[in-house]
Input
Amino acid sequence: QARLVESGGGEVQAGGSLRLSCSASGINFGSFAGGWHRQAPGKVREPVAAIYSVGTTSYPDSVRGRFTISRDIAKNTVYLQMDNLKPEDTAVYYCNAYDGTYDYWGQGTQVTVSS
Output
C-alpha cells in the first residue's frame, strides 16, 4: 500500500520562501512520476509542478521561475522549493505519485502567504 506524507507547509510573508517535502513509502520515485498540486478555497485543484521518472520537470506559467521541484531517490522524497511567494499562492498543497496505472495522493499541507 503506497503512502505519501507532505510536510513543510506554514505561513510566510509575501516574498518569502518555503520548502515542501513529500516522503513516499510503498512506491519508488525512481519509477513513478511525482507532482505537486494545490487547491485554494472555492477553486479547483491545479497542478504546480511535476518531475518525471527520467528527471525532466514541468511547471505552469503561474509558478515557473519561482517554484522548483526536485527529488532524492535514495530518500524516496520529492521536494517543492517555493520562492518569491505571493498571496495568491495560498492553498493546500498536495503531492502525488503516478505511473500511468496508479495515482497516489498525500493528505495535503497548508501554505498561507500574507501580504
Remarks:
- The chain has a mean pLDDT of 96.
- The radius of gyration is 13 Å.
- The first strand starts at residue 3 and ends at 7.
